[in-house]
Write a structure and sequence with these properties.
9 helices
Length: about 200
């Protein structure tokens, strides 16, 4: 796999991409009438994001590090890809039969595995960090699938247009979020340290 292709694949897990997509997916589901599915998966997705952020803040502020496992914090990219794309495939293939939906779900999970492996290969994360992120994201996706009963009655196609403005607004807002900067500020405020613990991939 070429360097540019690897970067494109990894960008699927960028916070600036995944959060607007996740918000757009929730908006689409709610507009289609599957609001229970939207709220349940949205809660799982949000919880995964918070856990990742918390683990990164803990390392930046207190230098948390499980030395034997080479674990500093959960991989955000691995978590977001595994939490978003398998569930999105499940939704997109609604009405195509259980076999097609399961194939889409499996392909989404395999995409998460590929991203986790790329993160390790490029030195962005250790195996423990990438695999734990993938497991967390996979849990969010599978819970969303398990709690998606009202998808069967949803009118997905007519409601898809609601996702476009939500994605556009979300992507615009993320340009000004500076999440990494605020995580460092919060870590320093909570820990009382004057400098964060270094970690290039955090």
């Amino acid at each position: 796999m070429g360097g540019r292709t690897m970067l494109r694949v990894l960008h699927l897990g960028d916070l600036e991409v995944a959060l607007p997509l996740g918000a757009a997916l929730c908006a689409w589901l709610m507009a289609a009438g599957a609001w229970r599915t939207a709220l349940r998966w949205g809660a799982c997705f949000g919880a995964a994001v918070v856990l990742v952020g918390g683990s990164k803040i803990a390392h930046l502020g207190w230098g948390t590090d499980v030395g034997q496992l080479e674990f500093k914090a959960l991989s955000g990219h691995a978590t977001l890809v595994a939490a978003l794309y398998p569930f999105a495939a499940w939704v997109l293939l609604a009405g195509q039969g259980q076999a097609a939906r399961r194939v889409g779900l499996a392909l989404g999970l395999l995409l998460g595995v590929a991203v986790a492996m790329l993160l390790v290969a490029t030195g962005e994360h250790t195996g423990a960090e990438a695999s734990s992120g993938w497991l967390l994201g996979t849990g969010a996706s599978l819970l969303g699938v398990a709690w998606s009963g009202d998808l069967e009655r949803a009118r997905l196609l007519p409601a898809i247009w609601w996702s476009l403005p939500v994605f556009a607004i979300g992507a615009w807002l993320m340009e000004f979020a500076h999440v990494g900067y605020w995580m460092i500020r919060l870590a320093l405020a909570l820990s009382g340290n004057s400098h964060p613990y270094p970690w290039d991939a955090c």
